[in-house]
Design a protein that fits this description.
Largest sheet: 6 strands, mixed
Strand content: 25-35%
Radius of gyration: 33 Å
Helix content: 10-25%
Structural class: alpha+beta
Length: 434
Amino acid sequence: MLSQAQKLQHKKTQNMQYLLKLCVETKYIVSHNIAVPDGISNGSPCILKKVIYGQLCEKNSRERIPIRAYVQFEKESTGEKTRQRLQNIIKADGITEKNWTPIQRICRSFSLNENTHIQVTRNQLPLLPSNAQTIHCSQSCTYDNILVFLNKTLSRKLLYTACSRVTSLSGLYLSGIYKKPARATLENDPSLREMTRMRNEAQLQFSLIFPEDVKNKDNTVVLFHNVRSLNLHFENISCDPTFIASDVIMLAETWSKPEDKYDINNFTIISRTDCKSPKRKAFGTLVYVKNYLLPHVNILFQNESISGTNHSTVVALTMFSKTVIMVYKSPKTAWNVLKQQLQQAITKSLENHIYDITIMGDFNIKYQVSDPNYTNLKSFMTEANCSMLLDATKVSTDHSSLIDLCFSTNTLNNADIFESVTSDHKPIWIELGM
């Protein structure tokens, strides 16, 4: 019976080897899910660094055997929690390397054979040598160099899996006689059938329009975004092709301080407000204008109202006989405060005989929602002869609300909402004729 248990293949023993050969500085893989949230799972590649010998806590057992193995994973983060949890054991073993992770023996029970109910328990280190491994075991791994042994029965799927484990073609080596797999057809390949169906019957129609899609020499594109900290996301904003394609970039909640520098190539900052407190808070606005446009731009009005944590900012600029007004109102700021600022900005525009007026920004007023603030906003825009240009069925935040709005006296202007990778607010933009 013992002899029979020793000869069982590891496929029938839950990947528990009877004889596990250990060699320091050799590649292994973890054979079981030891600590999945910590990255130590079945197939995790590692290099064996040290073996700790001792005795199992069993009666009459004085044999010194490997009781613990220290391995180094490809990623330093793998095993970090395990190392922290077992730090006393690591210290007792005299290990000083910070990225060596202890792998301890585990026990697994399995049936001796199908004809008996005899259970065998194997106590072993959950490691498998992996200088060579099956294609199935390699599915979660990536290597700089691999050697694939070919045989006549290798299917197209297995060949693809094997060859895709390598990081570059220069590191791929094939051994054996290559036999070209059968060509994929609609009859023998379900993946091809599904791809064909999707191309012919289920094509998605992309509906988002970006400023760079409409930008030309005969128009001006103005973009507004509640950026939720320019200080945190400046690198993303400064290289985003959508932002760079715009002529005017208006940002709110920059969380900026006066000493911060936010220079973008080919743009000039013409208006800026910053946090007044030592700590960064949800304050700050910033307006960029492309350099070629500077001779045609004039700051018509700028006002910032602050009362504790409540604040609102309105900036109005003119260009090519058009006025664009940027709005930011914090959630609890009273509507009357913003209303007064907007009235002053609109009056300034009319006094300069500019009647093509666009008002855009974060109003923090939910559009078309039963709310006194929305009623007041709608009445104000009607009196100002401004219409909502954005699609009211869309949302401007990740919270399914439409609070970033765009109004204009010119209903021919094209405006839309697109996605953000940095903020829970979505940028909005408008295309103005020159």
